[in-house]
Specification:
about 240 residues; alpha/beta; Metallo-beta-lactamase, Chain A; six-stranded mixed sheet; five-stranded mixed sheet; 7 helices; about 25% helix
């Protein structure tokens, strides 16, 4: 019998990152990890997806300026949900860069009142008391959004060839941004701190599972989560039962 020749299989190539996309990874307070913000260049200027916590403001502004995002060059700021680690610098960016703030109406009350539980199941008194102390979401961080984003909202008038997808679960007003090339910026619905997965922190687990099922039916090539590095969507699909 003839000798079999082993054929080396080439490693599967990860989908490439959009050209000129800047991933800004900012520290959370008290060494609780990091959070991602995404600066996307467009013909109309930059679009910033999420802003990090107020405690990382100086670093955010420094990285934005390093990427060429100066006052007047950030017309649109998009928030995937209302938590402090994603919205903490939105008001500051509006003042400094002239950005319009956009988010889903389901989470707008969180930003307006500085209350991360305004539309969630209510925690005990101790947690409600301590969270504002740790998050530093005071009056200067509160804001009313300029643009309210519903499911299917077309972002092309803002220079980004993408649409908004409603993804409730982590919060009522959580959204994703799906570009025409198949890149998904998913906020905190999905997580990649210990491998791609549905985020364990769900206010409404049933809604979270339904949002995941919706994503799995779409043509998504690469996922950009709020926490952890980007990953190919097929990696998440392989982990599901």
């Amino acid at each position: 019998m003839g000798r079999r020749t082993a054929v080396a299989m080439a490693p599967r190539k990860e989908p490439s990152m959009p050209q000129d996309l800047h991933i800004l990874t900012l520290p959370l307070p008290f060494r609780m990890g990091t959070v991602n913000c995404y600066l996307h260049p467009t013909p109309a200027g930059h679009v910033l997806i999420d802003t990090g916590p107020a405690s990382a403001r100086k670093r955010l502004h420094r990285e934005l300026e390093s990427a060429g995002c100066v006052p007047g060059a950030l017309p649109f700021l998009l928030l995937t949900h209302g938590d402090f680690d994603h919205t903490g610098n939105a008001a500051s960016c509006r003042t400094t860069f002239g950005a319009k703030i956009a988010m889903h109406p389901g989470d707008a009350g969180m930003a307006e009142r500085g209350d991360m539980f305004v539309n969630r199941k209510q925690p005990n008194f101790l947690i409600r008391t301590l969270v504002p102390l740790f998050t530093r979401f005071g009056k200067s961080e509160r804001f009313t959004p300029d643009v309210l984003l519903g499911d299917g909202y077309d972002l092309s008038p803002h220079g980004l060839e993408a649409r908004v997808i409603s993804l409730p679960g982590h919060s009522l007003g959580s959204i994703g941004v799906l570009t025409s090339s198949g890149d998904l910026f998913c906020g905190d619905l999905l997580d990649n701190t210990k491998g791609p997965s549905l985020n364990a922190l769900m206010d409404d687990p049933t809604a979270g599972e339904a949002s995941l099922a919706r994503l799995q039916a779409l043509d998504i090539r690469r996922v950009y989560p709020g926490h952890g590095p980007p990953f190919a969507m097929e990696r998440l699909a392989q982990k599901q039962p």
